[in-house]
Structures are given as C-alpha cells and as structure tokens.
C-alpha cells in the first residue's frame, strides 16, 4: 500500500523537552504508551493508556542500565530498542524482565517498525567514491539484532528531516523545522525502486525530532518541540 495523503497533525499532549519520542509497542496489545524525554537520558516512562498519558499519570518507569541517546528508538514485542549513549552499541532491553537481552555494535542508527517487523536506518560510506554517507535500510532479527536483509537507499545523510517506514516503504520528509514540509522521497523494499512523491507534511511547532509509524493503529506518532502529535495516513490502495 502506498501513501496517498498525510493528515494535519492532532496534538495529544504538551510535555517535556523540545526533543523526545513517544510510541506504542508495535507488536503489543492494549493501549500502553512509552515515552523518552530529551535527546539523552536513562528513563523510559510507561502510561497505561492515552487518558493516563494526557493526565501525566505514568504507570511505570524503567531505569535503563545504559543511557539512551537520540530519538530513534522503538518498543517492539516487549523490548525497548535504542542507541546506547557515548558508545557504538545498540541495545535490546527486555521490559518485563528488565535486563539487556542483546546488543551489537552499530553507530548512530534509527529504528523503525512496520507490518513486517523491526528495521534500522544506518549511515554508511558510499562505496561509489562520493565520500558521502548514504542510508542503508536493514531488517533485523529482533531477538539478537542480526541483519536479515539490507537495502541501499538513495538518501544521503543530513539531506532530509525525518523518516518513517510504512508497509515496506521508507519515506523521508524534507525538513524537520519548516512548518510546511513535504515527503519528497520514498524507497520501496518490495520493488527496489525510488520515487519522488510530494505529500504535504506539517511540522506544526517547527521542530519535529521524531516521526514513527505504528502498524497497530496505522498512525504516525511525532514529537514536535515538546508537543506529542499524531497524524492519520491515507493509503492510495
């Protein structure tokens, strides 16, 4: 399914620093919401449902054994996947048993989840001699973080705002801080093709540090300058 349109964002809360991330467990049940506040920290907050989140009533707090950095983490099948701060490691942290279940050495990645599983975006030096970093899209085995398959996209590092993955298609927004932005790039893992869509994308508060697709409710979750936003997506077919 290809995206046809992205709705205007709806604000669900106003909380925290300008950077952060909020999400659901893409393989979970129920309506639990997870949140990290800031670009760096060691706490993952859990809210029982949207009402608890809106009223600021956290039901659980996880003190991570290693601090996170960035906003490109996900919760998938009961585990929190994130970049470990001040290191070149990515970590799988088991939420139920509260321990590190797996880690591997990869630097500066962003995780993504879609209908087919767990992915990461990884900047790698272009082998064609341009000395620029291109973005690789890698599907991971969630249990041990081993790569299943890898795709070389046409995205260059630092040339776009946010990315998100929907139904095996990677989309890139051209700006994270321009209010009226556009999705201007798509890479389809089914056909190995690039397209240049032009889908309007609104950064309402002009500083979107996270955009994540949730296959449970088919919505985009975004953190925009301390505001937690949600977008509906409309499919072409």
TrEMBL record:
Family matches, as InterPro entries: Olfac-like_dom, Olfactomedin-like_domain
Gene Ontology cellular component terms for the protein in this record: extracellular space
Name the record gives this protein: Olfactomedin-like domain-containing protein
Top-rank taxon, per record: Eukaryota
Pfam families: OLF (PF02191)
Species the sequence originates in: Sphaeramia orbicularis (orbiculate cardinalfish)
One GO term (biological process): signal transduction
Keyword annotations from UniProtKB, A to Z: Secreted
Domain Olfactomedin-like: 1-237
Major subcellular site: secreted
SMART domains: OLF (SM00284)
Protein location: Secreted
Entry-linked PROSITE patterns: OLF (PS51132)
């Amino acid at each position: 399914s290809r995206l046809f349109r992205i709705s205007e964002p709806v604000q669900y809360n106003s909380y925290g620093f300008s950077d952060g991330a909020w999400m659901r467990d893409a393989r979970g049940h129920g309506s639990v919401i997870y949140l990290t506040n800031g670009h760096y920290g060691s706490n993952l907050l859990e809210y029982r449902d949207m009402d608890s989140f809106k009223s600021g009533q956290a039901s659980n707090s996880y003190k991570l054994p290693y601090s996170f950095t960035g906003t490109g983490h996900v919760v998938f099948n009961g585990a929190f996947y994130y970049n470990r701060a001040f290191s070149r490691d990515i970590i799988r942290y088991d939420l139920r048993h509260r321990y590190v279940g797996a880690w591997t050495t990869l630097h500066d990645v962003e995780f993504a989840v879609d209908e087919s599983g767990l992915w990461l975006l990884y900047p790698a030096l272009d082998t064609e001699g341009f000395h620029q970093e291109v973005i690789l899209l890698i599907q991971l085995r969630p249990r041990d973080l081993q790569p299943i398959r890898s795709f070389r996209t046409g995205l260059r590092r630092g040339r776009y705002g946010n990315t998100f993955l929907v139904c095996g298609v990677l989309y890139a927004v051209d700006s994270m801080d321009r209010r009226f932005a556009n999705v201007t790039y798509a890479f389809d893992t089914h056909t190995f093709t690039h397209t240049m869509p032009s889908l309007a994308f609104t950064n309402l508060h002009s500083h979107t540090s996270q955009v994540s697709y949730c296959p449970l409710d088919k919505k985009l979750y975004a953190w925009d300058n301390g505001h937690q936003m949600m977008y509906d997506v409309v499919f072409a077919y």
